[in-house]
Design brief:
The protein is about 35% helix and about 15% strand. The chain has 15 helices and 21 strands. Strand 12 and strand 13 form a beta hairpin. The longest helix has about 30 residues, at about 350-380. Bound molecules: pyridoxal-5'-phosphate. The site of pyridoxal-5'-phosphate has 14 residues, from helix 6.
């Protein structure tokens, strides 16, 4: 908000010539016509002055000639975001701010407002818009249609899986994966602790018992050491899990080789939650294709998006066919409506699949762009003691969905949350690293296996990590302003 409004104030006795001179002296393209006590009459733009002249008033005519108009105003408590949307809605560039007593105290100027820089805003391109238009034109608004089949085929090809099932969300995909693996009440199901809650919620849907496994410091994903201790302890107790949900956070694969080897040795199937890691690879295999079943999400903030959506991929086509059936209310093969098992309404709609096909084409670009954003951060914020980055082991090619930094409070002299708050006042959105599941009230009392007996890596990351704006729609100039804001906040 501009508070120095004195140069913009003008009284009704001033002439058009005076107003033009005063308008030219300022850079905002408006004046504020006021009465005594800074009471606002109306906003004057150069267009208003031009119209007076065209209507035949001469330059010496007073501003009394202006028609009366009630200008839209904001209050002292109006936020920058609210001011922006009011101006956009009314298609105006200037929004005077008035106090409770109606006196003027400031002005919002639309071009002067910076857009908030978000963590990961959806990014829609030409191709998606064309495919959506096509889906509408061909009247394929029906739940299923050619785009769904096309999207499944193209997704499977992209990741090198035998098949894919397009679903309404990544969470739905995890839920179906657990159903396909026969998880039932009180079964133990392992899950990475450092993740978004959607990885673990489906375990609760089935009344099963979640057990959380810590991260290792090399990839921030499931620690093979913790997994081995958990499996060994549960084997001895005669309560081996029925599935392991391995999560690839922030676009990076977990160290799948030792994890899958261990799970094979104990006969436990692996579900790979690759909701955040589409486009990443592990030892040259697409992330999401290394377990028995893999899960992707196309939620609004993910690397590609259908606004909401998900997919299940795998090698076992019978299993995927069953997933497809369960996702459409599990109808038996009969012409009448007959059902034997519980199904869901989990299918992706045809229109959204159309968006997905367009987004899929953009995936290589999006991965390259996210990685370039990460490189720009690590360069721009290099040389700061106590600031480190999410590592990328040599077996990993991350999609760098989010650029994540850790701030050592001792070396930096500030807690990451303090940094986050200061960036928020500069209109920059950052977020802490996922709060681990074993610390969530929802999962209080559930078993947890840390990386080492005396070290919980996910706790360390939660307390030191901050995700930085990483959206592919972000401009270099915006990223530069994030970098300089962080340097400023850190006093570097
Ligand atoms: C986003 C996400 C999900 C859930 O995907 P939705 O499509 O939002 O249901 C699951 N796991 C992880 C790790 C995620 O980031």
């Amino acid at each position: 908000m501009i508070t120095d409004i004195e140069p913009l104030l003008i009284g009704p006795n001033a002439s058009i010539a005076d107003a033009m001179t005063q308008l030219n002296a300022g850079a905002l393209g408006c004046l504020l016509l006021t009465r005594k006590g800074r009471l606002l009459d109306r906003v004057i733009t150069d267009g208003d002055l031009r119209r007076l002249l065209i209507a035949g008033h001469d330059m010496q005519a007073s501003l009394e000639a202006l028609s009366e108009r009630t200008s839209v105003t904001a209050h002292e408590s109006t936020t920058e975001d609210e001011a922006r949307s009011v101006m956009e809605e009314h298609q105006i560039l200037h929004l005077p701010v008035v106090r409770q007593d109606s006196s003027l105290c400031g002005l919002y100027h639309l071009p002067g407002l910076s857009r908030p820089i978000l963590l990961s805003a959806p990014h829609m391109g030409e191709a998606e818009q064309q495919l959506v238009a096509e889906a509408f034109r061909d009247n394929w608004i029906a739940p299923v249609g050619p785009h769904v089949d096309g999207f499944e085929k193209e997704l499977a090809e992209t990741v090198g899986a035998a098949g894919a099932v397009a679903l309404s969300s990544g969470t739905a995909a995890i839920h179906l994966a657990l159903r396909l693996l026969g998880i039932t009440r009180n079964d133990r199901v392992y899950c990475s602790s450092l993740t978004f809650v959607a990885s673990a919620n489906p375990i609760l849907y089935e009344g099963a018992e979640p057990v959380f496994i810590d991260s290792e410091p090399e990839s921030w994903n499931m620690s093979p050491a913790a997994l081995e201790r958990a499996l060994e302890a549960d084997r001895r107790a005669g309560q081996l899990p029925t599935a392991v949900v391995v999560v690839n956070i922030y676009g990076q694969s977990a160290d799948m080789e030792p994890i899958v080897e261990l799970c094979d040795a104990y006969g436990v199937p692996v579900v790979e939650d690759a909701a955040e890691s589409l486009g990443a690879t592990y030892r040259n295999h697409a992330s999401g294709t290394l377990g028995r079943l893999g899960v992707y999400s196309f939620n609004g903030n993910k690397i590609i998006t259908t606004s909401g959506g998900g997919a299940l991929v795998g090698e076992d086509l019978d299993m995927l066919a069953e997933a497809r059936r369960l996702s459409t209310q599990a109808r038996d093969q009969a012409s009448h409506y007959q059902h034997t098992v519980t199904g869901y309404n989990y299918r992706l709609s045809n229109v959204l699949a159309g968006i997905g096909r367009g987004q899929l084409k953009a995936l290589p670009d999006r991965v390259a762009r996210r990685r370039a954003i990460f490189d720009r951060y690590s360069e721009g914020l290099g040389g700061i003691d106590g600031l480190d980055w999410m590592p990328e082991p040599d077996w990993s090619y991350s999609n760098r969905w989010l650029s994540v930094a850790t701030f050592n409070p001792q070396q930096i002299g500030q807690h990451p949350y303090a940094i986050m708050r200061q960036l928020r006042t500069r209109n920059i959105e950052t977020r802490p690293v996922w709060k681990p599941m074993h610390l969530q009230p929802l999962f209080k009392g559930k078993d947890y296996f840390p990386h080492a007996e005396d070290r919980s890596v996910s706790d360390e990351l939660f307390l030191s990590g901050l995700c930085l704006p990483s959206g592919t729609g972000m401009t270099d100039a915006q990223q530069d302003s994030v970098i300089s804001a962080i340097r400023e906040v850190l006093g570097q």
